[in-house]
Amino acid sequence: MPREIVDRVEMPKQSPEERRSNFREVALGLDPELAVREAKRCIQCKTKPCTKGCPVEVEIPDFIALMAQGKFREADAKIKEKNSLPAICGRVCPQESQCESLCTLGKKFTPVAVGALERFAADWTREHSPESGCEKAGSDGPAVCAAADGIERPSARVAVIGSGPAGLTCAAELALMGYRVDIYESLHETGGVLRYGIPEFRLPKAIVNQEVDYVRSLGVRIFTNVLVGMTLDLNEMLAKGEYQAAFIGTGAGLPYFLEIPGENLNGVYSANEFLTRVNLMKAYKFPEYDTPVKIGRRVAVVGAGNVAMDAARTSLRLGAEDVKIVYRRSRTEMPARLEEIENAEEEGVQMFLLTNPVRIISDGKGGVGAMECIKMELGEPDASGRRRPVPIPGSEFTMDVDTIIIAVGQGPNPLLARATEGLALNRRGNIEARDEYGATSIPGVWAGGDIVTGAATVISAMGAGKRAARGIDIWLRSQS
Amino acid sequence: MFRIMEKRLLAPAVHQLVVEAPLVARSARPGNFVIVRTNETGERIPLTIADYDPEKGSVMLVVQEVGKSTMDIGMMEAGDSFADVAGPLGQATPIKKVGTVVGVAGGIGVAPLLPQIKLHKEIGNHVITIVGARTRDLLILKDETEQASHEVIFATDDGSFGYHGFVTAALEELIKQGRQIDEVTAIGPVRMMQATCNLTRKHNIPTLVSLNAVMVDGTGMCGCCRVTVGGETKFSCVDGPDFDGHKVDFDELASRQAFFRDEENLARELAEQKRGGCRCHEK
Ligand SMILES: Cc1cc2nc3c(=O)[nH]c(=O)nc-3n(C[C@H](O)[C@H](O)[C@H](O)COP(=O)(O)OP(=O)(O)OC[C@H]3O[C@@H](n4cnc5c(N)ncnc54)[C@H](O)[C@@H]3O)c2cc1C
Ligand SMILES: Cc1cc2nc3c(=O)[nH]c(=O)nc-3n(C[C@H](O)[C@H](O)[C@H](O)COP(=O)(O)OP(=O)(O)OC[C@H]3O[C@@H](n4cnc5c(N)ncnc54)[C@H](O)[C@@H]3O)c2cc1C
Ligand code: SF4
Ligand code: SF4
Ligand code: FES
Questions:
Q1: Is the Cβ of B263 closer than 8 Å to some Cβ of chain A?
Q2: Closest alpha carbon within chain B to A188
Q3: DSSP 3-state helix, strand, coil percentages of chain B (rounded to 5)?
């Protein structure tokens, strides 16, 4: 009997009119019925092409088969064998270019909604069981979980620097193997970009909290307010024998600016500053929370990645009347996820493509009065393979804005490297990873995530954290 | 953690706190600062480490009440704890043997100046300190300053104590007397540091200033603290907070400091109302 191909389920969302004025999550998630229906679309391909698209190798057909039987808890457990943060990945992974892009069904129809299913399994399980992870663990005790894979290991301590997705994953993996793991985080809160960058309406902080609690429940201790390189010295931590190995997952936290005149005027923010004020410091709740943020009436966000979309959509929610994305290339080159671009446009964000800022004009009172831009056209492909934007002479025009948010990328924060003797960097200032596990130039120290690759994705950072955990395990076992 | 071990009023609305922060105390150097948050809804604000004691595991902070967050600190008592204290942050002040160093402090700027002049004296520089305040009651840490310096000039705007006039005028007199001055370090309000630099520029005296840009993370992640030095943008939290004062764009700094003034005023008024309200009930 030919199999009936039903349409992929659509995840319900808040309407654009409603959501553009609140910070609640936009995508509302599936219900059990929709989830089972979607799971049943999967044809359980023997060769599992989808799995190859996942940087942490989630057993996609296996967990979906469990979902199709309504076994959501088991499906969640299946995912967690490979991915310790499914509720987050289900929300923010660029599935359309990863797992879902390789789905057999996608060749003729629409791919299985792997991300939506992953999110549902994790959400459902969490809502139906407050307890998760290893029960014996305490917040200040050592890891007491038995190794998940039954392999005997030396008793060793590992320091993980940074509590973003790379650090959290590496810590969770090591804890599951039975190592004692301490995470050091420079901010007062955990999660890295998941906390300070990605907004509440895309990734509720309650979800981040629960995923971090899960990692804690494995016995991992987390110390916030510790800036390694300033508060503690990495080489000293290893030399004193406090730790036998370390993982660096410090991310790409250094905002780039355009380096055009007027950029230090009031009203020009880096996306990092703007989003940190709103997300980490909860400035959208000012004055209940003490940290302020100021948004004008007319906002230009420069850049077109996920960060830019988040800044633009956040601006709308803070009450800006008119929000523009200003991007020097064309729509096809926009690096943001398609879904986020569509969400932004539905909410009323306007796209000014093939447009580049040249200078920011003062209002005479230290603030932004306007932004002068120039029109661009696409020329020959550049090193990145994308067509290089070139300015069209004489096409300058003035854009009437009072707030500008710069979202043109982030580089590696130099603090740790500067203070850590012997840590080799590449030309761009990223930590040099010398093998597939992320070994650095310092014996016993691994690195992964954005600090190695430059700004990338949550799931690739997690993949790196996981590989490093394997590398650390192999090394520690060889040392004993 | 981050318990207030001691608290003392140095002058009206100026508090000295000794805070438990063992890891910070162990790594602190003169010129470093911490970022503190009083409680869960609090703002991250930078405060200079005015002294540190690795043995006791504590740092000393001197806080002047100027708005909501510093007023909140003013209300805290010994035994209370900060939600967060992160540090030490910033570059340690470059302190070298140069000969004679004049430390110039405006207001509570003397607190962050102290660890620097102490070290200057320790490594063999001759230290002259000029401390200015509006009036006698606002001159703080007098004994500590005298101990840490070879010579001290106290100055008050109203002449109620010591030299009658601004710190810059006192400095100018020193220069006019023909005293050899190899380096000046100025810490205080922006306009005071600017005036000092205008003076020392004329006399070619290298001058270090400590910039108090608005900060959020204090770790180089947000760029809020950017300042223009020698025509280049610097992040004062990681590249500073000390810079060559002759190259700093002080007007830009002053303007950027005022960006959130409306919000700050609102927050302060609400805080005052809340306190005032409580007092009304007491009557
Ligand atoms: C606004 C925004 C939106 C994004 N949207 C998406 C998306 O939709 N999908 C997606 O896949 N990716 C997205 N990304 C990218 C993704 O978030 C990052 O690639 C990912 O978070 C990198 O993880 P990481 O663990 O390497 O670093 P981070 O998440 O940056 O975490 C690093 C952590 O280390 C801490 N740290 C830094 N230095 C030190 C030190 N010296 N000592 C102690 N701690 C330190 C930092 O405070 C931070 O908490 C987005 C990024 C941003 C900024
Ligand atoms: C490196 C550095 C070291 C400092 N050391 C000390 C110190 O030792 N003792 C002391 O009393 N003060 C110090 N300050 C200033 C102190 O941080 C501000 O007074 C405090 O943040 C004001 O907060 P508020 O809520 O009380 O006042 P608000 O009403 O919020 O602000 C009053 C003024 O303080 C400044 N300010 C506000 N928020 C911040 C912020 N997040 N970061 C920096 N400045 C801000 C602005 O200029 C503002 O106009 C330092 C500042 C810097 C940058
Ligand atoms: S973790 Fe991301 S890439 Fe992997 S299966 Fe889940 S949604 Fe797809
Ligand atoms: S490729 Fe698509 S249909 Fe095939 S197993 Fe994976 S998710 Fe199912
Ligand atoms: S305070 Fe954020 S970069 Fe300096």
A1: yes
A2: B84
A3: 35, 30, 35
Token readout for B75 is 């209300």
Alpha-carbon span B169 to B215, nearest angstrom: 31
In this predicted structure, what is the pLDDT of residue A1? 41
Residues of chain B contacting residue A226, judged by C-beta atoms under 8 Å apart: 23, 86
Pocket of ligand 5 (CB under 6 A): B 215-218, 220-225, 235, 237
Whether the CB of B66 is below 8 Å from some CB of chain A: the reply is no
Which domains does chain A show, CATH number per domain? 3-128 (1.10.1060.10), 157-253+411-479 (3.50.50.60), 257-408 (3.50.50.60)
CA angle, residues A203, A208, A212, in degrees to nearest 5: 165
Nearest CA-CA distance, residue B69 and chain A, Å: 8
The H-or-E segment that residue B169 falls in is helix B167-176
CA B274 to chain centre: 28
Q: Does B86 touch chain A (CB under 8 A)?
A: yes
Asked if A294 and B260 come within 8 Å (Cβ–Cβ), the reply is yes
Q: Does residue A303 contact residue B249 with C-beta atoms inside 8 Å?
A: no
Q: Are A397 and A373 in contact (CB under 8 A)?
A: yes
The count of other CB atoms within 10 Å of the CB of residue B249 is: 17
Tens digit of pLDDT at every position of chain A (480 positions): 445 557 888 899 999 999 998 999 999 999 999 999 999 999 999 999 999 999 889 999 999 999 999 999 999 999 988 888 899 999 999 998 899 999 999 988 899 999 999 999 999 998 887 554 444 333 333 344 456 677 888 889 999 999 999 999 999 999 999 999 999 999 999 999 999 999 999 999 999 998 899 899 999 999 999 999 999 999 999 999 999 999 999 999 899 999 999 999 999 999 999 999 999 999 999 999 999 999 999 999 999 999 999 999 999 999 999 999 999 999 988 999 888 999 999 999 999 999 999 999 999 999 999 999 999 999 888 887 888 899 999 999 999 999 999 999 999 988 999 899 999 999 889 999 999 999 999 999 999 999 999 989 999 999 999 999 999 999 999 987
- The one-letter code for the residue type at A141 is G
Q: Is B220 on the interface with A (CB under 8 A)?
A: yes
Query: Which site among B33, B72, B73, B217 would you substitute to test the A interface, given the most A Cβ atoms closer than 10 Å to its Cβ?
Result: B217
**The dihedral formed by the CA atoms of A193, A198, A202 and A205, expressed in degrees to the nearest 10:** 60
Task: Quote the CA–CA distance of B222 and A253 in Å, as a whole number.
Answer: 8
Query: Is A270 in contact with B37 (Cβ distance < 8 A)?
Result: no
DSSP state string for A374-433? EEEEEEEE-TTSSEEEEE-TT--EEE--SEEEE-S-EE---HHHHHSTT--B-TTSPBPP
Residue B266: list chain A partners with CB under 8 A: 287
> Rounded to the nearest whole angstrom, what is the distance from the C-alpha of residue A246 to the centroid of ligand 3?
26
Taking the centre of ligand 3 as the mean of its atom positions, its distance from the CA of residue A116, in whole angstroms, is 10
* Nearest CA owner, ligand 3 atom 8: A99
Interface of B with A in 264-283 (CB under 8 A): 264, 266-267, 270
| DSSP secondary structure code for residue B204 in this structure | T
pLDDT confidence of residue A130: 59
Q: Is B217's Cβ below 8 Å from some Cβ in A?
A: yes
Measured between beta carbons, the chain A residues lying within 8 angstroms of B270 are 287
pTM for the model stands at 0.93
Q: What is the ipTM of this complex?
A: 0.94
- Residue A277 CA, distance from chain mean position: 18
Ligand 2 contacts CB of residue B187 (under 6 A): no
Query: Measured in angstroms, how far is the CA atom of residue A93 from the centroid of ligand 3?
Result: 6
Please answer yes or no on whether B221 and A255 come within 8 Å at the CB atom. yes
Among B243, B260, B217, B280, residue whose Cα is nearest residue B67: B260
